[in-house]
Design goal:
Blueprint: H1 8-15, H2 19-22, H3 24-47, H4 49-68, H5 73-86, H6 88-101, H7 104-135, H8 138-156, H9 171-182, H10 185-213, H11 221-227, H12 233-267, H13 273-300, H14 306-358
Helix pairs in contact: 3-4, 3-5, 3-6, 3-14, 4-5, 4-6, 4-8, 6-14, 7-8, 7-11, 7-12, 7-13, 10-13, 10-14, 12-13, 12-14
InterPro entries: MFS (IPR011701), MFS_dom (IPR020846), MFS_trans_sf (IPR036259), Sugar_transporter_CS (IPR005829)
Membrane topology: Multi-pass membrane protein
GO molecular function, one term: transmembrane transporter activity
């Protein structure tokens, strides 16, 4: 999903476009994910979570190969949009699979393990894409994504068959589930929080690569990919989120996350590279913790049509990423890094305010379902 972030300076030079235009390489994928996620949720509720995951991984190989041969930024974005239509088949269905197939006593641990996996994948995608592009070309980075999708297909086939799944194929039941979700204040709050969380993360990392490619840093794509090693902190942070969520609940976890992110974003305003990296690390850790809190809140706020609920959340979540991919680039071009820092600090602070106000009921209190 985010592997091209380390390639943005290279793609900007290759296609002779500015910060706002090159950000669409990420934005095309996240926009498609925002559009497709609710429909994938309905599909997973009807056909089964495991089946949707397996087929999504298999089909993801095709747009990755198409991206390798893209002659223009427009055609590259078309391939990236196709990837975005398929990625929710993995993420939305897996979230619902965990919620229904994992016993309540282990659900928090499973969710945080899932987030840990996405964190590790987020680092490896950015780092390896930058490394491969530095040695070969940006085309080779998309060959790597095709191989990763193929490996995902093989692993998905090892998932146990569903034991607690009940198909929902009646359109009236789908409409009823959608209506219930849209009348659920806790779920709608979580969607808003998710929108703001990913707006912060994508706005930060899309423009970070462009900043570090300029003077006085002038980092290569491999060096910029190495900066994303801060993502590895999430491998430590997110497993700790399960016990913390069980003890304190999503509201407290979100406020803690917002505080860490705001402190880190302030630190990125410093000039020395070590301080910038330290600030980015703190901001990223806050985002990882807030994502765990939001995923927990989604499953605790609903009792049925879980794939659809997760799809609605992902639609809002990746909608924030799509908007940030364009807006943050424009702000960077007009106001530099200080403008971007102010933008993402505002979005993260607003996420905290929305969560505190909206997670006052079932989604915001501790419960046995989150005990590790």
């Amino acid at each position: 999903m985010y592997a091209p972030q380390s390639l943005l300076p290279l793609l900007s030079r290759e296609f002779r476009v500015g910060a706002a235009e090159v950000g669409t390489v990420v934005g095309a994928t996240t926009l498609a994910m925002a559009l497709a996620s609710p429909f994938v949720g309905v599909l997973a509720d009807a056909l089964g979570r495991r089946r949707v995951v397996v087929w999504a991984y298999a089909l993801l190989v095709l747009p990755a190969v198409a991206a390798v041969f893209a002659p223009t930024l427009g055609t590259l974005n078309l391939a990236r949009f196709a990837q975005g239509l398929l990625i929710p088949g993995v993420m939305v269905a897996l979230n619902a699979y965990i919620a229904e197939e994992v016993p309540p006593a282990g659900r928090a641990r499973a969710l945080t393990a899932y987030v840990t996996g996405t964190v590790l994948g987020g680092f490896l995608g950015r780092f390896l894409a930058g490394l491969v592009a530095d040695v070969q070309s940006w085309h080779a980075a998309f060959w790597l994504l095709a191989l990763a999708s193929l490996a995902g297909w093989g692993l998905a086939r090892t998932l146990p068959r569903e034991a607690g799944f009940t198909p929902r194929r009646d359109p009236r039941a789908v409409a009823a589930g959608l209506g219930a979700h849209l009348r659920n204040p806790a779920l709608l709050t979580t969607c808003a929080v998710g929108f703001l969380i990913l707006f912060t993360l994508v706005g930060l990392f899309n423009t970070l690569t462009l900043r570090l490619a300029e003077a006085p840093y002038a980092l290569t794509t491999a060096q910029t990919g190495g900066v994303f090693a801060v993502y590895l902190l999430g491998v430590v942070i997110t497993p700790l989120a399960g016990p913390f969520l069980a003890a304190r609940g999503p509201r407290t976890a979100l406020l803690t996350a917002v505080g860490a992110s705001l402190a880190g974003l302030l630190l990125t305003l410093a000039a020395p590279l070590p301080l910038v990296v330290l600030g980015v690390a703190a901001a990223a850790c806050g985002v990882f913790l807030s994502q765990s809190a939001a995923l927990a809140a989604v499953q605790r706020s609903v009792t049925g049509a879980r794939s659809l609920a997760t799809g609605l959340y992902h639609s809002a979540y990746y909608g924030g990423a799509a908007l940030a991919s364009v807006v943050a680039g424009q702000v960077f071009a007009a106001r530099g890094w200080a403008g971007v820092a102010a933008l993402v600090m505002g979005s993260m602070a607003l996420a905290g305010l929305v969560g505190v106000w909206g997670w006052r009921g079932r989604a915001g209190a501790g419960s046995a379902s989150l005990r590790p």
